[in-house]
Amino acid sequence: MGKIKIDYIIVGQGLAGSWLAFEFLKRDLSVMVFDRNIEETSSKKAAGIYNPITGRNMVKTWKADALFSNLEFDYSHLEKKIRAKFLHPIPIYRPFKAVEDQNDWNGKASDEGYLEYLKEFKEQSIGYDDIIDPLGGIILNKSGYVNIPVMLSAMKTFLLNKGAYLSEVFDYDKMKLNSNTALYDSFEAKKIIFCEGSLPENQFWDLPFRPVRGEIIDIECDFKSDFIINQGVFMIPKKDRITIGATYDHKNLTFEPQESGIKSLEERLKKIFKGDFRIIDKQAGVRPATHDRKPYIGLHKKYKTLGIFNGFGTKGVSLAPYFAKHFVDVLTHRDEIDQEVHVQRVN
Ligand SMILES: Cc1cc2nc3c(=O)[nH]c(=O)nc-3n(C[C@H](O)[C@H](O)[C@H](O)COP(=O)(O)OP(=O)(O)OC[C@H]3O[C@@H](n4cnc5c(N)ncnc54)[C@H](O)[C@@H]3O)c2cc1C
Question: How far apart (Å, rounded) are the C-alpha atoms in residues 36 and 21?
Answer without folding.
Answer: 16
